[in-house]
Amino acid sequence: MSDPTLTPAWQTLASAGASIAPIRELIDQDRSEFRTNLGEIEVDFSRQRINSSVWNTLKELVVERKVAHSRDEMCAGVHINVTEDRAVLHSALRLPRDSQLVVDGVDIVDQVHSVLDRMAVLAERVRSGDWRGFTGKRIESVVNIGIGGSDLGPAMAHQALGAFVQPDLEFFFVSNVDPADLVETLKHCDPETTLFIVASKTFTTAETMSNAQQARDWVRKAATSQDPDFIVAHHFVALSTNERAVSDFGIDPANMFEFWDWVGGRYSMGSAIGLSTMIAVGSQQFGELLNGFHHADLNFENEPWESNVALQMGALAVWNRNFLGIDTTAVLPYAQYLERFPAYLQQLTMESNGKSVRSDGESVSYDTGAIYWGEPGTNGQHSFYQLLHQGTNTVACDIIVVARAKHDLGDQQSMLVANALAQASVLSLGMDANEVAASSIPAGLVPHKVMPGNRPVTLIMCPELNPFVLGMLVALYENCVFVQGAIWGINSFDQWGVELGKKVATGISEAFESPSLAANFDPSTAASISRYLNLRDQG
Length: 539
Prior knowledge:
The chain is α/β, with parallel strands linked by helices. It has 3 domains: 9-15 and 22-85 and 291-487, Rossmann fold (3-Layer(aba) Sandwich); 95-281, Glucose-6-phosphate isomerase like protein, domain 1 (Rossmann fold), CATH 3.40.50.10490; 498-538. 47% of the residues lie in helices and 11% in strands. The chain has helices at residues 8-19, 23-26, 52-64, 67-76, 108-128, 149-160, 179-186, 206-222, 228-235, 243-249, 275-281, 283-302, 309-323, 341-353, 385-390, 412-429, 433-437, 446-449, 467-488, 496-513, 523-538; strands spanning 35-38, 41-47, 102-103, 106-107, 141-145, 170-174, 194-199, 236-239, 256-257, 328-334, 371-373, 396-402, 457-462. The strands form 3 sheets. It has a 6-stranded mixed beta sheet with strand order 1-2-13-12-10-11, with helices on both faces. A 5-stranded parallel beta sheet has the order 6-5-7-8-9, sandwiched between helices.
């Protein structure tokens, strides 16, 4: 991929970024062109620091960077993940059953739906009570053991779809190798009635397999009189591609649900990784989740700029990052069910686009990958919003609003939405010294109450939160991430920065067992190894 800074549109945007008016001045004009619908979701960019000229130039940038061509290559199965020589086909996970997508001579849609059908059978067995533990009791607790995308997506979906979860089942998500994560989870579980879902593509992921082995020992300890293989077969299923390792662990391969190397972990919610979600809400609602994904994909793949929400959102993210110098975005869902959504997006966005090398191996000369973070409103208002409003760093904000609540508690939902809209207004418009002074406060307090505003805000308003809407939201951000990566010319689908840390951790673990190996590391690491061993052995 060539250098995007050499394109005419990039040069024009660089000049525009230095001279664009504040949002307060821009918002007095008609801003209807900056509002777009994705199904019943309205995505409102009218509080962004843009004008029609910038908007049209961003469209030109998308064309000059051949984003549509890159998108079409991805959807056709071209190996756009060049560093791993892989296709990127998470969009195929939500294609309808009657679709066809042949990649390397194989119709992968048939493969996808074959796995989904098998997942539905198991999910129904657990939900109905037909699946029994080693004492014949029905399953009451489901523990998903994974890490990264094998944890964040399922955990987020379970929280987001809490109103749809079968009430007689409890769900837990274990990811951290810190013993406290598993131990505290198992305090709420009964070995006779717990099903473990072990999610690891290779079935060798160190953190996941360590937790899985401890869980297996926990169940076996409670059933000393039973055959160990019988116990594991009744309490463990696998999400993996490594049948031999799954079988060696003791899991019946019939209870292994495969996925493919063209599914990246952070893009895997619609794959077998979604098994816990399917058990929680049922196969029909899981199908609605997939339909929501697909609806957003169709918008991204077929609509022109004027109605293509992901194209617009991704291009705006580049505008904020590269031309307004905004290096962080706060995701602020005014919906408690979306409490885990910012954490999910942290991996999706930063693991994808936190790159300093283009796909062609050349170093970038421009910023990439904004920092994404956030918390639900209104909690965040009493935490970090002070910095959003009056801090020295400008933070872009995505505010997500759900119009219709699942629970009727008088006027609380309207109170929640009023807070969201108020924050969107104040963040973007602020309040100058004259306006503050007009409120008859002491002159000495005026500068302390000035709000600079000019914080770009995207307001995403959903009619309600259900599986279909959640699917649209997730796919919107997935496709937005793709657009950014395509403009920057980086590979959004590898994660070598993660892999190196894992490799070094393996070496340090070996040094814990053979302290002389500490000499292979730098002096600081060697000293830390020694200190840890001293503290460990003192206990």
